[in-house]
Design goal:
Elements lengths: L1 E2 L5 E4 L9 E4 L5 H24 L7 H27 L8 H4 L11 H12 L3 H9 L4 H28 L6 H9 L1 H30 L3 H24 L4 H24 L3 H4 L4 H17 L6 H26 L11 H4 L9 H8 L7 H7 L13 H24 L3 H8 L2 H4 L3 H9 L16 H10 L12 H12 L8 H35 L14 H24 L5 H29 L7 H23 L7 H13 L10 H42 L24 H12 L6 H4 L4
Antiparallel strand pairs: 1-2, 2-3
Length: 757
């Protein structure tokens, strides 16, 4: 039923006695909008021309910001809108799982601004920070192209479409949707692949957090304080002032800034700094306890407000970095493409440009982990189907911008310092003298192609002193390089004397960034695990994710899974994480292949074959990349790339009584031999599971094409009884509907529809 005075706008009601629950608007492109997007397109084109074609001796990093932002705005306005109108066709008269199954624990309609914050915080982990920094060794251009083009056509498409599918299936997890849509064989392979990869991803992220926080009282104190602040915000929004999102945001941000400043005082205090300086193993146990608590407590109490709070910090810092770049206008020190792109012998990671660049930069362009959040917490919290474009597609564009900022921070550092930080100790020797000799011997070239003059060891020593560290040599893993690059750019605010502050601020920022992925990841893994057990005869009770007994059992099992890998990684410096990190990139992209396979199969089953290319093209690309990388990791005879080749090299050396780096003893040699066997075996298992999923989907697609479509497992429509705007800012038509709710003395938010007020 629709009513409206304006012929361009239809107000839709599901109950004649209540105000409208949805607004349908025909979007007419005004002259002003054409002019604005014309200007954006021209600016973007100039940015791309400066980066890719003109180049020359000096490329200003401002062009990275211009090219990225212009591309994102055009993609969100036109490509995402095309997918919305032609492919997904959301209906706001239909209740989302959050409204239909609302229980105040896992299902709960959540203000779109808070949910955008939660979703962005949950998907944006270590990947967009670390991957681009490591990939910078191949030059700035390949990474920039993949981050920006990849997100528009692959990453954001996956996140948006998986979110929409899950909303239409009562918030079911990716593994369960695969089982429902692709049949038992493909579904079981998907569930096994998704769950095993998930546990590895959470453990890897946990190690990165602990690496950033160990020995950092500032970081530990500030991050610990975000928990009571989030609990306060949750209670405030739920009971004290429901709906007062802007108010609680201001309070939360003020408290967060106080916690960060206080962290600096704690670090300098003689007794408090000792209290908050924790050993890695202590941090690991605290992280495990936190992960469990965040996954079983009601989502409104800790998880959603804490992620929303950290989003202010995340987006605020990235915007500050972008402003710093616009003010300081640093020049790219790295060439557009370096020799390491073709030789595959880079110090940061071994392997050629194709396929390894596309796996190293996973999360800024395409990340399978996001499909788990898009079918985990977010569909159980979203108020309206039309909000999925902003949250799914828009959230991923924001993450891609984070990746571009990380890349800019890395390529604007002096190349000698960059390679000294990212080459392992075995190459640099760990001392300024030996490290300077190593980087001077790399034969580095400037962006214009001329050899760079050698550096003195004092350059490396002074760089460390400038950020208040004893050394910056061989601080591998990407995070310290990003912190160093950020401190260089951010010294535009406050000068050189502030470098140490910005460096330590950036380290804490990275830990906060990644921690939000650990807590949301644990909750998502719990949903997936309970979905999976629910398929076993006699265990159907587990299908209800909010059954408390099941939730506690599943959370304990999931936390024990990633926690044991985490503790193993902390206690065994050559095992655990270092074994699993190289797998992290490939496993994450294989997850994306599973997600895109499910989406493509569902579109064909729905009879939308002419739009199957939208997820289909990124799927084919992702499969080519991941299968090429898996093949090389399994079969390459280069011990730096192939797992089994590495194992053979260490076995030969051990039998000859030699000790190869990074091992320091015969016992270390045995560990590396065992670890490389585990890595190689897991690589084979993951690749085989994905091939099974794709094969099962191909069978379903062929059947659907022959039958002209097949039924899908989309749930029946349930009429909505609430109203919420689709974007951050309500349109004039949406404002009019909100006024109708006020005039009727009703609250359009879900708390009112339950009669709590």
């Amino acid at each position: 039923m629709s009513t409206s005075l304006d012929p361009e706008v239809r107000e839709l009601r599901t109950d004649p006695d209540r105000p409208p629950v949805a607004v349908e608007q025909r979007h007419r492109v005004t002259t002003r909008e054409k002019a604005v997007f014309g200007v954006i397109a021209v600016l973007g084109a100039i940015g791309w021309i400066m980066l890719a074609i003109v180049r020359g001796e000096q490329v200003n990093t401002v062009w990275f910001v211009v090219a990225a932002v212009a591309t994102y705005l055009i993609a969100f306005r036109f490509y995402a809108r095309l997918i919305e109108y032609k492919v997904l066709q959301p209906r706001d008269t239909r209740a989302t799982p959050a409204e239909e199954l609302e229980n105040g624990k896992d299902f709960m309609p959540t203000d779109r601004r808070v949910l955008y914050g939660h979703h962005f915080a949950a998907v944006a982990g270590a990947g967009p920070l670390v991957g681009p920094v490591l990939a910078a060794q191949m030059g700035y251009l390949p990474g920039t192209l993949w981050i920006i083009i990849g997100v528009v056509f692959a990453g954001a498409v996956q996140d948006y479409m998986v979110l929409h599918l899950s909303i239409r299936r009562r918030g079911r997890s990716l593994g369960q949707m695969a089982r429902d849509e692709l049949g038992a064989v493909g579904g079981i392979a998907a569930i096994l692949g998704v769950l095993s990869i998930m546990l590895i991803l959470i453990a890897v992220l946990g190690i990165v957090v602990i690496g950033a926080l160990a020995g950092s009282p500032w970081g530990v104190f500030s991050i610990a304080m975000t928990i009571p602040i989030a609990l306060f915000m949750g209670v405030y929004l739920r009971y004290l002032r429901p709906g007062a999102v802007n108010e609680v945001s201001v309070i939360g941000v003020v408290l967060l800034v106080l916690a960060i400043v206080a962290g600096g005082w704690v670090a300098e205090h003689p007794t408090l700094s000792d209290t908050f300086t924790l050993e890695p193993i202590t941090l690991a146990w605290l992280l495990i306890a936190y992960g469990f608590a965040a996954s079983v407590l009601p989502v409104w109490l800790l998880l959603a407000p804490r992620d929303y709070l950290s989003t202010f910090m995340k987006i605020g810092t990235i915007v500050l970095l972008a402003v710093g770049i616009l003010i300081a206008r640093p020049v790219a020190q790295m060439p557009a493409v370096t020799e390491f792109a073709s030789t595959g012998t880079g110090p940061a990671f071994a392997g050629s440009l194709f396929p390894f660049l596309f796996i190293t930069i996973a999360c800024g362009a395409l990340s399978g982990f996001h499909a788990l959040v898009s079918s985990g917490t977010t569909p159980k919290l979203i108020e309206k189907e039309s909000q999925a474009r902003l949250i799914g597609y828009g959230g991923m564009l924001t993450e891609s911008f984070v990746a571009i900022m990380a890349l800019v921070a890395a390529v604007s550092i002096d190349q000698h310092i960059y390679f000294a930080m990212n080459a392992p100790v075995a190459l640099t020797g760990g001392e300024p003298g030996s490290a300077a000799d190593y980087v001077n011997g790399l034969g580095l070239l400037s962006p214009g192609g001329t050899p760079i003059p050698p550096i003195d060891p004092s350059v490396l020593q002074n760089a460390a002193e400038g950020v208040g560290e004893e050394t910056i040599i061989s601080r591998t893993g990407g995070a310290p390089t990003l912190a160093f690059g950020m401190s260089e750019v951010m010294s535009a605010f406050g000068g050189e004397s502030m470098k140490s502050f910005w460096y330590h601020f950036a380290v804490m920022f990275e830990a906060l960034f990644i921690l939000t992925t650990v807590d949301a990841g644990t909750r998502v893994a719990r949903f997936m695990f309970s979905d999976s057990i629910g398929n076993v005869p006699g265990m159907s009770r587990f299908k209800d994710p909010s059954w408390r007994v099941g939730a506690w059992i599943c959370s304990l099992i999931v936390v024990a899974g990633w926690g044991s890998i985490l503790v193993m990684g902390i206690l065994d410096p050559l095992g655990g994480i270092y074994t699993l990190f190289p797998l992290f990139g490939i496993a994450n992209q294989l997850l994306a292949a599973i997600a895109l396979t499910v989406v493509t199969a569902v579109l064909v089953k729905q009879g939308k074959v002419r739009w199957a290319w939208v997820p289909g093209i990124p799927l084919v690309w992702d499969l080519v990349v991941t299968m090429s990388a898996s093949y090389q990791k399994i079969f390459s005879d280069n011990p730096k790339i192939g797992y089994f080749a590495q194992r053979d090299a260490f076995v030969t050396a051990r039998d000859a009584g030699e000790v190869l780096a990074p091992a320091k003893s015969a016992a270390d040699m045995d560990k590396i031999i065992f670890n490389s066997l585990v890595q190689g075996t897991l690589s084979i298992v993951f690749a085989v599971l994905v091939i099974i999923v794709v094969a099962a989907a191909a069978v379903v697609v062929v059947k659907a094409l022959r039958a002209g479509g097949l039924p899908t497992t989309e749930d029946e429509d349930v009429p909505s009884r609430i109203f919420a705007p689709a974007g951050f800012v309500p349109t004039p038509a949406e404002k009019r509907v909100l006024e109708q709710w006020q005039e009727a003395g009703l609250d359009p938010s879900p708390a009112a529809s339950r009669g709590h007020h």
